[in-house]
Amino acid sequence: MDVPEIPSLFKGIIEVTSIQNVGPEPGQVGTLTARFVRYPDCQQLSVWLPSSGYKNYTNYRLLRLSDAVLVENQELASKLCGSVRLLWDTLVWPPAEYRLEIPFSPSCCHWMYFRKLEAGTKVGENEPIDMPMATADSPSVIHESQSDLALTEADGNSGLYRQYRDGMGNLLPNGDEELRNELKNIANDLAMQYRQPDVDSPQVRFYSQGSGGAIEYSSSNEQARFSYEFGGGACKLIIDIPALEDWEQVTGIALARRRYVLLTIATAVRTEQAPNWRFEINNRTIEFY
User: Is the pTM of this model over 0.90?
Assistant: First the structure.
């Protein structure tokens, strides 16, 4: 019996150097945005389209510029995670200069230039890292003077969090620390509610239906149900949620409570279903990896 060949893995990070639209009318739609993250033995590149990938796109191409090799030429839907997010496992991409091409009309195309570095270049080979978001106006690169994009100790106290910087090295607000603190506040609120029987604590219930199902959030005066489906590849689970502008109309819950409700649901999924997964809350989905 033939033994499948184990692919080579390349642990270097990815820097996005340029994002643009090309063609006779490049400004008729928005541009791509992208972000690279790396965890132990796992790394991925996320690219967000300016509009739905199911309506306006057909395919994409990935070229390795150093030797003019067409690495991938596939249907765009094969990489969609949700409606606008594309996701790649990048461990199998060797160090080189690349260009991602995504046509959005017969004569216009999104282009994104990026480079995969050698393992250990700029940051340690096994250091977790969360690169800044790359846009048409701001590349996502690590300058030689930057050494703190990897996880760092938070003033010697409990837990680790990332420091985010823009393409010029300027420190950005620390979303990880804010999220961690918010989760702590939710945990404290729940603990207080369990100690006080007269306070109605929120409940999260799961209803399985084959490859998907529903998640119900309820409290004394709030109730909403959200559908979910199991993902593919790195994305394990996707919960569909109303966009910010539709939240109150769809759920009947105050917009000011939206983040609390979503964090409560995401925390319940991790606690009760998959403690080793991490989650991302986007405008229309909660995604677990």
Answer: no
Side chain identity at residue 243, one-letter code? A
CB 287, CB 82: distance < 8 Å: yes
Could you report the per-residue pLDDT of 32-87, keeping only the tens digit for each?
999 998 877 788 999 989 888 888 899 999 999 989 999 999 999 999 887 888 99
Short-list 13, 65, 26, 35, CA closest to 135: 35
Mean pLDDT computed over every residue of the chain: 80
How far is Cα 287 from Cα 271, in angstroms, rounded to an integer?
15
CATH of 14-172, one of 3.40.190.10, 3.90.550.10, 3.40.50.720, 2.60.40.3080: 2.60.40.3080
Angle at the Cα of 284 from the Cα atoms of 218 and 36, rounded to 5 degrees: 125
Distance, CA of 148 to chain centre: 21
- Tokens 């119900």 belong to 216
The strand order across the sheet containing 237-240 reads: 203-209, 212-218, 223-230, 237-240, 285-288, 279-281
For the record, the structure tokens of 266 come out as 């995401």
Average pLDDT over residues 259-270: 89
Residue count of the chain, please give it: 289
Structure tokens at 18: 């340029």
Q: Which amino acid is at 264?
A: T
